[in-house]
Amino acid sequence: MNPPRSRATGRVTLADVAQAAGVSPITVSRALRGERAVAPDLVARVQAAVQKLGYVPDPAARALASRHSTHVAVLIPLLTNALFVDLLEAVQLHLRRAGYQMLIGITHYDPAEEEQLLREQLVHRPAGLIVTGFDRHERTRALIEQSGVPCVHVMETSDVPGQYSVGLSQAEAGAALTRHLLERGRQRIAFAAAQLDPRVMQRLEGWRRELQAAGLYDARLEWLNPEPSSLALGSRMFEQIIAHKPGVDAIFFCNDDLAQGALLAAARHRVAVPRRVAIAGFNDLTGSDLTNPPLTTVRTPRAQIGTVATQMLLRLMRGEAVTPTSVDLGFELVVRGST
After folding, report:
1. How far, in Å, CA of 248 to CA of 274, rounded?
2. Threshold 0.85, pTM exceeds
3. Do residues 12 and 3 make contact, with C-beta atoms less than 8 angstroms apart?
4. Which residues, in sequence order, are CB contacts of 48 under 8 Å at separation 6+?
5. 111-148 residue pLDDT tens
């Protein structure tokens, strides 16, 4: 026997589930939301009816009935970078536990694309927003502010009143790694960067600051390439730096995949690491502890940033006061054999 269907849409409705389970529609709704006030035997009956009828909740109907959306828009630059994957995993885990869905938008580090994605998302009136960093068009900032949708910024921090953020000081992390190289006796330290997004440039600023303080800054040691970060590019950049800057005794790569590629190139060209040149990365991506030699890097708390940012956003969506508005989760300098 076929399950009952809504005459208007052909969909199995919440009322159909209630009838099959022998409970009221409000009990079905509460059971599906996981409210503890619903008795376990009633939850079991509702779940059995859901499975039997193939019921799928209608998020649009739920939003209309409650005047609240069930999704959160999350805008990140890339999915090919593992650090954003780690962040998204944590965001989804905590959103799902709270009954929300995540809608992902990929900006490709393009402010115009971010603006368009945000406009598209706001049409659906999301319950909340998570966006990456603070570098965006003024129009986009105005959209966020005027929407009234709670918003949390990730990967960076801000002391601007009314801005909620969870991240770390990228500049201080870059400075800490540079200090480590100086303490190891390195004096000609190159900074090799790809993508050139705002957080990379903040790491560059930390590198500059420390070398200027040591009287060792040389603008010619800035090796900047706007191409996407990759092992292949890191390998190529290493070869270029060694060929054109023979006095370099350390290279700070802005991301681990570049540094991993550099280590492969060093092995290929028989350049001793760290005796001839030290190599360091950033973000402690998968495999950095397995390179030869293991890569010195900065470990960033991507999953923790996702967790704390989502918890902050959930409180904002409930209308609760959130303090502090900015959370700096710090970083960890991980010293391994490459330096």
Report:
1. 12
2. no
3. yes
4. 21
5. 999 999 999 988 888 999 999 999 999 999 999 998 99
Dist. CA 167–CA 198, nearest whole Å: 14
Task: Note the Cα 316 to chain centre separation in Å.
Answer: 19
Q: Which residue has the tokens 């009990």?
A: 27
Task: Report how far Cα 163 is from the mean position of its chain's Cα atoms.
Answer: 18
Structure-token match 């909340």, residue found: 128
Instruction: Please check whether residue 322 is in contact with residue 316, taking contact to mean a CB–CB distance below 8 angstroms.
Output: yes
Closest CA to 73 of 102, 97, 100, 93: 102
Which tens digit of pLDDT belongs to each residue from 298-320? 999 999 999 999 999 999 999 99
Mapping DSSP onto H, E and C, the string for the chain reads: CCCCCCCCCCCCCHHHHHHHHCCCHHHHHHHHCCCCCCCHHHHHHHHHHHHHHCCCCCHHHHHHHHCCCCEEEEEECCCCCHHHHHHHHHHHHHHHHCCCEEEEEECCCCHHHHHHHHHHHHHCCCCEEEEECCCCCHHHHHHHHHHCCCEEEEECCCCCCCCEEEECCHHHHHHHHHHHHHHCCCCCEEEEEECCCHHHHHHHHHHHHHHHHCCCCCHHHEEEECCCCCHHHHHHHHHHHHHHCCCCCEEEECCHHHHHHHHHHHHHCCCCCCCCCEEECCECCCCCCCCCCCCEEEECCHHHHHHHHHHHHHHHHCCCCCCCCEEECCCEEECCCCC
**Tokens linked to 37:** 């006030």
pLDDT at 5 over 90: no
How far is Cα 273 from Cα 275, in angstroms, rounded to an integer? 5
